[in-house]
Amino acid sequence: MALLVVLGGGESGVGTAILGLKKGYEVFVSDKGKIKEKYKNVLEHFGIDWEEEQHSEDRILKADLVMKSPGIPDKVPLVKQLVEKGVPVISEIEFASKYTDAKIIGITGSNGKTTTTMLTNHILASAELKVGMAGNIGDSYAKMVAENDFEYYVLEISSFQLDGIVDFKPSIAVITNITPDHLDRYEYEFENYIASKFRIAENQDENDYLIYDADDTVLVEWLKNHPVKSKLMPFSLNKVFEEGAFIEQNEIIIKTTTDTISMIKDTLALEGQHNVKNTMAAATIAKLVGIRKETIRACVSNFQGAPHRLEKVLKIHHVEYINDSKATNVNAAYYALDSMKSPTVWIVGGVDKGNEYMELMPLVREKVKAIICLGEDNEKIKHVFGNAVDLLVETFAMEEAVKVAYKIAERGDTVLLSPACASFDLFKNYEDRGDQFKNCVKNL
């Protein structure tokens, strides 16, 4: 019996363990940290062998196949040893894809991928297709493959997950955009990160589709120098295509070889130019899958949006509080500030991933009346924006940040949490950061 070793006992790890067991592997789960109680219970239920707070190297190095959770970098010594021994080290999406005949829709990008994934899933589910949504969002893809018989999978896929693929091949792939992010994992080389994102299309052939933002110069340049085999379906706010999605007057037009659909831009549920693009991508997928125009139009006008992404929390004394905790990089914060319509008190900061804040300067000068830093190290933010706003305050806890914002904000202002940074200095993850923000606002 072949030995499958799963490194990491989180959602993707436990899901992979269940699928591996079902497919006849001997399975061993090893986590260097603590495994959450709920996952331990699942492993015990299935009789899967596991360990926590250590890696038993002698046992792990005997593996026939290793599934590595996306959070573990390739440069970890144990992973290097496995690779040197010739043991395949793959990601959950690679492993699970081998065991399903479903049509796979893979969505990646620096920003917008969660919203695009959720909207796509919303349209397909509304059309009563048998669809599962997984990957970097919600439930484990491998666990879904083990327990369901879906016809479609809509997968949100991170660059870390794409680093661990060999044969993974979505029939429809989307790259929403590429901006510098996670550079600490890519030797601080932007090229490496771009190449990683484009792996989503590397196994595609001429029967497959790649949907991409034709306004994104990084994407356009890369495609020019590294052509793909799949059929290209661009979307744009200012270009027009024979096939693709574009704007004419106040309408979104989506053209495929067989059909055209138009939608009035003002009917979209999601606000902001970036969400016009996310909607274009999701609607193009729906069109390629063959969903009726009426269904697509209805879905883009009634979609609720992703939590922690420009999520309206409350209005208190005519001040709007917005939770954009999912903005873990500068580009995401750019979208958020760009969509602000009133003077903004901006809560920003966290773990800096090599951020370049200067591109936010025009928006900060135009829209931001005060900055509240929320992080253990705020030096870079203070250095860049110290002279750009009248007031900059340092805080080290969410409750403090929200109370300061409440004091500063005046009638008609907006308080925006859009950190532009990772959350791991003060919070478990961006969800924890967003939930704390919402709770603190509700307790004002």
DSSP helix fraction? 25-40%
Number of helices: 17
Tell me the span between the first and last alpha carbons: 59 Å
The poorly predicted ranges are none
Q: Biggest sheet: strands, sense, closure? A: 6 strands, parallel
> Per CATH, which architecture of the largest domain?
3-Layer(aba) Sandwich
Number of strands: 20
Radius of gyration: 22 Å
List the helices and strands and how they pair.
Layout: E1 3-7, H1 11-22, E2 26-31, H2 37-46, E3 49-52, H3 57-60, E4 65-68, H4 77-84, E5 89-90, H5 92-97, E6 103-108, H6 113-126, E7 131-135, H7 141-147, E8 152-156, H8 159-163, E9 172-175, H9 190-198, E10 209-213, H10 217-225, E11 231-235, E12 244-248, E13 251-255, E14 260-264, H11 273-289, H12 293-302, E15 311-316, E16 319-323, H13 330-338, E17 344-348, H14 361-367, E18 368-374, H15 379-385, E19 391-395, H16 398-408, E20 414-417, H17 430-442
Parallel strand pairs: 1-2, 1-4, 2-3, 4-5, 6-8, 6-9, 7-8, 9-10, 10-11, 16-20, 17-18, 17-20, 18-19
Antiparallel strand pairs: 12-13, 13-14, 15-16
Helix pairs in contact: 1-2, 1-7, 6-11, 6-12, 16-17
